């Protein structure tokens, strides 16, 4: 009836005007008229939504494990203990949720040494409706069997410069390694074992900063080989790496280039060692450092690890020869907010993911330790929620108040934060031990 009355009144006005012979416009602001569009719509009731689903597929028989969820302002949404095989769903009214949330894992176990270990990992900016699976970390597979030593041989390199690093390997991995130049004579003697394969690769990094190689074929037990250094060949291509010497007071470093044949899977210990260096002697470093590659191989493991105290650079790639490897120089970091719950900094190092670590463990004599790791995208500087009081009271040695910043790791290449979440939790079958990364850590 509320709609019919104004219509009837309008009709009467129009008819009245026509009877007088006058044209009269209706007044749209007539107070007795009601606009149906001004009706107040009914407010929708909040709906319960499942904002997160979590399946635990990790062995929890020796540990206490909790999952904790905060909104993007650090407010606690939910927390729960879990065991292997549990499927947990987390529900909230939609008006109680922010656009994203943070997932934190809390793990407690007693190490064989008796140390009480607390490990916390936080992952912010998770989308509403996400489904995760927690699975074990991938292990090295397809590891080759070097086998027992079947014999030995000696090789004498004549007219060679003093060596910095030397390595002899077969397709199943390293057979001989030595660093330094202990010889004053012009003949370099190497005593090397023979294992499953009698074709070997001899790499030689000399004191003139040249990296060369020699192929040893069909060697037999008790052979004595004499080779002039002029018979060593240059590699088909090199990647030169400029090392930031300004950080090099007490360096520890490892360099490794390993070639794999087309029918050989990637492995941790196998492959032909083109370059193998593990050392902490600055006098043996060279700048630029040379990594060698051969056109006859298209599958490589390339590793470079450099610990310079305040800075750590870690590069590992599986696949083709890298075009270049560049260690950031003159890196700066300015801390703006120095808190676990909201850590913010500025840096001149371009990165696509970051990992900030905190710990209260300063000594091997400490009876307990807590490590807190926060993984996020490069633009995230939001809030990380606190561990619920119920959990803190259950683990009195947690010691969060004693935690100190231990390092800010910037991922420069190969993986982004969305990639990490996808591989780690959404599709964990994609996880592999043989993954590539480039990480620059500022301590």
Automatic annotation (TrEMBL):
<protein>
    <submittedName>
        <fullName>Uncharacterized protein</fullName>
    </submittedName>
</protein>
<feature type="compositionally biased region" description="Acidic residues">
    <location>
        <begin position="36"/>
        <end position="45"/>
    </location>
</feature>
<feature type="compositionally biased region" description="Low complexity">
    <location>
        <begin position="25"/>
        <end position="35"/>
    </location>
</feature>
<feature type="region of interest" description="Disordered">
    <location>
        <begin position="19"/>
        <end position="46"/>
    </location>
</feature>
């Amino acid at each position: 009836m509320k709609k019919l009355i104004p219509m009837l009144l309008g009709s009467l006005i129009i008819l009245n005007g026509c009877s007088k012979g006058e044209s009269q416009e209706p007044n749209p602001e007539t107070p007795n008229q009601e606009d149906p569009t001004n009706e107040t719509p009914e407010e929708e009731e909040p709906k319960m939504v499942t904002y997160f689903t979590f399946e635990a597929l990790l062995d929890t028989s020796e540990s206490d494990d909790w999952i904790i969820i905060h909104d993007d302002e650090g407010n606690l949404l939910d927390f729960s203990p879990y065991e292997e095989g549990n499927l947990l769903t987390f529900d909230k009214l939609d008006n109680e949720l922010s656009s994203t949330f943070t997932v934190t894992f809390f793990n407690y176990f007693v190490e064989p040494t008796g140390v009480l270990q607390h490990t916390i990992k936080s992952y912010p900016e998770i989308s509403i409706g996400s489904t995760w699976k927690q699975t074990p970390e991938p292990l090295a597979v397809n590891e080759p069997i070097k086998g027992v030593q079947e014999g030995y041989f000696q090789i004498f390199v004549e007219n060679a410069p003093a060596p910095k690093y030397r390595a002899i390997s077969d397709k199943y991995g390293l057979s001989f390694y030595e660093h330094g130049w202990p010889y004053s004579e012009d003949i370099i003697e190497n005593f090397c074992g023979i294992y499953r394969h009698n074709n070997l690769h001899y790499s030689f990094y000399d004191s003139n900063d040249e990296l060369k190689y020699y192929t040893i074929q069909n060697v037999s037990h008790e052979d004595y080989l004499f080779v002039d250094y002029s018979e060593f060949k240059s590699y088909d291509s090199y990647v030169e790496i400029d090392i930031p010497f300004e950080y090099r007071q007490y360096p520890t470093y490892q360099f490794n280039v390993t070639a794999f044949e087309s029918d050989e899977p990637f492995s941790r210990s196998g492959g032909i060692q083109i370059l193998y260096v593990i050392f902490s002697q600055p006098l043996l470093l060279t700048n630029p450092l040379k990594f060698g590659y051969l056109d006859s191989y298209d599958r490589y493991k390339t590793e470079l690890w450099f610990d310079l105290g305040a800075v750590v650079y870690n590069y590992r790639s599986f696949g083709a020869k890298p075009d270049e490897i560049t260690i950031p120089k003159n890196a700066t970091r300015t801390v703006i907010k120095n808190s676990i719950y909201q850590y913010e900094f500025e840096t001149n190092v371009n990165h696509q993911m970051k990992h900030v670590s905190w710990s209260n463990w300063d000594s091997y004599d400490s009876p307990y330790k807590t490590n807190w790791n926060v993984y996020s995208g490069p633009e995230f500087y939001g809030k990380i929620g606190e561990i619920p009081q119920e959990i803190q009271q259950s683990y009195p040695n947690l010691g969060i108040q004693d935690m100190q910043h231990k390092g800010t790791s910037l991922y420069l290449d190969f993986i982004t934060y969305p990639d990490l979440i996808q591989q780690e939790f959404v599709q964990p079958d994609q996880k592999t031990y043989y993954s590539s990364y480039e990480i620059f850590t500022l301590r």
